[in-house]
Amino acid sequence: LTSPPPQRDAADQNFDSMFKLLIIGNSSVGKTSFLFRYADDSFTSAFVSTVGIDFKVKTVFRNNKRIKLQIWDTAGQERYRTITTAYYRGAMGFLLMYDISNQESFSSVQDWATQIKTYSWDNAQVILVGNKCDLEDDRLIATEDGQRLSDELGFEFFEASAKDNINVKQVFERLVDVICVKNAEMEASANQQPNNKDLDIKDSQESHGACAC
Ligand code: GTP
Ligand code: MG
């Protein structure tokens, strides 16, 4: 666990760590659009509701590390809940999304937070995202309300727009950074207890590779 990462040459397309991330929230808040904007820099105004679950992979370079992101895009529709919650386990980070022009999606945030608590690993990091901030005229959720709720839940908070490409990259980069910080903290505390049996458990929980940044 504490050994240095293997040396790789410049041409190596490999990665130092892999982070599994999940995007959750009500149907139509813009989860798929957010991922497409981030991974492909594309946007479409047509709504094709996700069936079950899908994923994209993107590699980012943060803190001198090549980090491969496996980003799972879940269906918001209730009928897929059993399928989607099965993917929470092992996720290192979540984007919990609502739509600033949709009251119901904001009212559901608490329930989604409970789902994370129930089905995910305790150390998973969460960012609350108020999407569609381009729709200022249709806004129903004040920025302060989003901020207050995220403070209560202990999550970080961003408003964003997949359509106008506002804060999309920033949200993912922040999530990667908070996961790196958490991993470093856990590694430090594990190293302080050299005979700790939890090391084995920690190893298996981080089978995708811990980030030492
Ligand atoms: P499910 O797959 O059913 O859970 O929905 P989803 O959360 O993946 O929503 P999706 O990304 O499919 O977007 C729903 C609708 O909102 C589509 O018509 C998108 O074009 C639109 N949309 C997504 N993001 C934005 C945004 O930032 N601004 C605006 N104005 N529309 C958006
Ligand atoms: Mg979708």
UniProtKB/TrEMBL annotation:
GO terms for biological process: exocytosis; protein transport; regulation of exocytosis. It is found in: Cell membrane. It is an enzyme of class 3 (hydrolase). It is a lipid-anchor. InterPro entries: P-loop_NTPase (IPR027417), Small_GTP-bd (IPR005225), Small_GTPase (IPR001806), Small_GTPase_Rab (IPR050305). It catalyses: GTP + H2O = GDP + phosphate + H(+). Its main location: membrane. The keyword Protease does not apply. Its EC number is 3.6.5.2. Pfam families: Ras. GO terms for molecular function: G protein activity; GTP binding; metal ion binding. GO terms for cellular component: plasma membrane; secretory granule. Its cofactor is Mg(2+). Keywords: Acetylation, Cell membrane, Exocytosis, GTP-binding, Hydrolase, Lipoprotein, Magnesium, Membrane, Metal-binding, Methylation, Nucleotide-binding, Phosphoprotein, Prenylation, Protein transport, Transport. NCBIfam families: small_GTP (TIGR00231). The small GTPases Rab are key regulators of intracellular membrane trafficking, from the formation of transport vesicles to their fusion with membranes. Rabs cycle between an inactive GDP-bound form and an active GTP-bound form that is able to recruit to membranes different sets of downstream effectors directly responsible for vesicle formation, movement, tethering and fusion. RAB3D may be involved in the insulin-induced exocytosis of GLUT4-containing vesicles in adipocytes. Belongs to the small GTPase superfamily. Rab family. PANTHER family: LD44762P (PTHR47980). This is small monomeric GTPase. It comes from Cyprinodon variegatus.
